[in-house]
Amino acid sequence: MKKHTVVFEPAGARCEINDGATLLEAAARAGVGLGSICGGSGICGKCRVTVKAGMSSLSGYTDAEREFIKQAEVGLRLACECRIYGDVTVRVPPQDMVSRKAARKVSVNLDPAVRKYSVKIAPPSMQDMGKGDRERVMEALAAQHGLSGLSLDFHVLKGLQKTIRDARGDVTASVWMGREIIRLEPSVSGAAYGLAVDIGTTTVAAYLCDLGSGNVLDTLSATNPQAAHGEDVMSRITFAMTEPGGLSVMQGEIRDCINGIIRETGLTPGDILDMTVVCNTVMHHIFLGIDPSGIGAAPFVHAVSRPLYVKARELGININESAYIHILPAASGFIGADSAGVLVALGPYSRDEKVLIIDVGTNGEILLGDRDGVYSASCATGPAFEGAQIRFGMRAAAGAIERVWIDTETKEPSLEIIGNARAGGICGSGIIDAVAGLFKAGIIDKTGRLRLERLEPPRAEDLSHTERLRLDALGRPEYVLAWKEQTGTGADITVTQADVRAVQLAKAALYAGTRLLMRRMGMERIDRIILAGAFGSYINKESALAIGMLPECAPENISAAGNAAGEGAVLALFNIGKREEAERETAKLKHIEISMDPGFQDEFLAAMDIPHR
Amino acid sequence: MKKHTVVFEPAGARCEINDGATLLEAAARAGVGLGSICGGSGICGKCRVTVKAGMSSLSGYTDAEREFIKQAEVGLRLACECRIYGDVTVRVPPQDMVSRKAARKVSVNLDPAVRKYSVKIAPPSMQDMGKGDRERVMEALAAQHGLSGLSLDFHVLKGLQKTIRDARGDVTASVWMGREIIRLEPSVSGAAYGLAVDIGTTTVAAYLCDLGSGNVLDTLSATNPQAAHGEDVMSRITFAMTEPGGLSVMQGEIRDCINGIIRETGLTPGDILDMTVVCNTVMHHIFLGIDPSGIGAAPFVHAVSRPLYVKARELGININESAYIHILPAASGFIGADSAGVLVALGPYSRDEKVLIIDVGTNGEILLGDRDGVYSASCATGPAFEGAQIRFGMRAAAGAIERVWIDTETKEPSLEIIGNARAGGICGSGIIDAVAGLFKAGIIDKTGRLRLERLEPPRAEDLSHTERLRLDALGRPEYVLAWKEQTGTGADITVTQADVRAVQLAKAALYAGTRLLMRRMGMERIDRIILAGAFGSYINKESALAIGMLPECAPENISAAGNAAGEGAVLALFNIGKREEAERETAKLKHIEISMDPGFQDEFLAAMDIPHR
Q: How far apart are CA B464 and CA A390, in angstroms?
């Protein structure tokens, strides 16, 4: 049989493959991971590649491809659809660097809320006229699967008779929680999908999961469109309070955003049979259409602590119309369902060692404890760690300076930039690196002051020889991280005195909060630190320790957990026991209101120094 | 104190009353039943009267009155709002005679699905931040009323915090089935209302009930707008099957019709907290948006037998948005939720005597049995008993001839007409009377033939002397019931040979069905006959016995029960035990498919004669 060579760029992987094989098969042989949710059926549109050479060696465009590929997208093909009749070179498009939230491979016992049961429904006869088709389905599920006492969503009832007739009684029922039939379809049905959603104040991340296999199939993300009304939760509360209809505008925005993500999966919405949601309490209220203003001022009362189940259709979310959305518990205005997600993902309550979990987002959320009890606190770090309130701050997207080293001799920096782009700004991990580097190089002192003064006579620690330390147009000191020739913006990128102060305030709030929590718990030492959140994955722990952001801990016991909140949502999607665990453990959580502690101010001031007093 | 005289027309009732009393108080003193749901608060608009004399003796129009009374309606006042300062004569507007379905006074233990609980919610503090307002409400209900394990409708959650704050923690929760909070409102709240709805193929009747007192406050009705697509259920099935979107058109029509009735109550929709529905299985499916076509042909499969609970908002019914609608069980395509209503209203299953219940509507529904078991059957009577398929047939509305006597000597008829109007046609009870009268007067023979032939030589039974017996323009025999001078239509109203045949077919179907059911059950005699349905209340039982429509039974043991189906809906509204009873007893019901019985044809032919062979 004829063989052809297929090359995959940019990885450069290659393989020999039989005449007539598909590009998807070639990718598998070459070890190239191509997104494919539908397993090559041409219905998910996820296995797109761009043909660089050898288009004429491929079979013609199919109807399925025309579904997903616009005329304008020259060279694009679905790998599962085109067959190979000659040598070909294709390029696998790089993922957009919109967000770096990513799902870890999840290992959890599979016990999802929705399970599928295939049943045979006997044809009706004049002898059992007293039975409706609904009762026939119920009896079949009881007899063939031992399921009894089920209810049936009203919307399923509408199409029930036609489905049974069309499938000649050979149907599959999707049963929610062993309680309610939420779908009835012909038995040739495919997988049951679920979506775990993390509604962040800035970014919405979603994990598309196969409820049958326990695999996370895809990670999708989008910017939370509410960001147009302000970066932080307080600005959203303000918008809801001051703008007529503001709440419903924001609820519509997040609904549309999630529906956009669902469209992006390429799946038929009706195939997504479950959804879990984590988010902070303000996002939670807005998503549900509940006025969040109570959370904005003392006594900070939120509407509901308990986890919720709401029909997707009630919220206008376009998954299966009979499916439920599970929103994890929001213990208080400060400790949201996102913390509940972190809690079940990392399970401090079942650890012997004392673990500190820090989720750094717009605010710093802390969990501290072990199997004897877990405390939570919220630190007003402000958004400096997210690159906001920093002169050249930006989010961790392409062009962001994410790693910084400063030579202690030459005072020259080395930079690492996301996405092989020219520098456009500094993200959170970069600013922490920069402050740590400036301190180690003696450019800032322990109070955080940029040491611009020239020493007379010049001494070894004199910094006047580096042009990078200078005054800006308004006479304020700054350090040039990247000269304008190196940047994508055409301007120098600098770290200003104010930037250093912002980092100091943020790290002091976090450190003081941790110390205070330890003191309250009578805890002497911390065994392990886990940094949660996308930011935590990219932070340089040596830099974090160097500036005194983290309490004392052996560096080898400091690790990152990625988007643990999102992972908690994924766990809750795959295993209903995790939902109960989230509810139980969130209820047991002891929350400490740090800012109300009389000792806070002293701790905070002491923590301002680098590393700290 | 000054006294004034108030006269109420057309009843002519009068009373003396103190200066400054309201017209509503005067009506009560005079013994005149004025519709008043709100108890004189000016919010229901039901106590309208027309002032015939003495307008200047009344207080001025109030805001409440302006709400309900259009400028054009000269002399109209709300009796509860206007105070009396002189002699007055008012007229109580007669009820429209659209339908004669009427609620009986119901006696049932009060155990409604929705109950109100007044609770005090303590103000939140920084010390219990872990509690959402929802949890605060739950704890208060548990502590103050022993209610635990409640859920809370998602829509209630949205307004929860504002309600609690506005009412300073003094709130009333409406709890459905001891399970779910469907409303939270300030504690100065009023009554809890419920609506029992009987969706007939022709007429929709609704009973507005006070769930707190057990009183039926009002009876409202409207024509089912689906009637535009045909009079009987088969025509509705045909419309759903043949007209694109026909099902959703009809669902919209019944929804709008019920919402119109709800508007007519004058209540705030949110105050109606429960609703029960009875109807035949075709109306049931259309109301729920389920394709009814399965019911139209063998094996006559309906979608669901079990009773249903559906949120009102899912069906677009404008009662409280969190309230449920309970639809009574529909045992089969032929035995609908209306039969379930009749069953619980009349309770044959707990009687010692053998009772036959006949619900005559467009079809004849039969229930027969006692505490040892109840059988049901459906007789294809056709709509003759409703005045349809009768040349001058009409519904039982103003102008309908509802009673007929024919003098056996003179062959002259005496008529009773609904609503003191001129005759416009004949309704069901009238046509039965007419056929019975024609038979007794010898004008028709036992085969139903109009004896038009003249006898040579003339004999005593010769009918040639009455001009009322004649040939119509097409040469078909007919009997003139009302000369055109007496009618409101300007034309003679006659009973035709075809009319007599239609009545014979209908009564034969009913009689044969009953006989067959008795035979199947090995029953020799019937102790009691109850005629249900609006029609049953107006039928003359002597006439029914005379034409052989009813099986042998002592006339004193034949009675009418009014709209028993609607009464069943009212009972189910006031007492949830009745819902369980309806489900249990409907499931036990043994349905006999009469038309499939080999003996049916013989019974049917034998029953065609008057009274019968």
A: 113
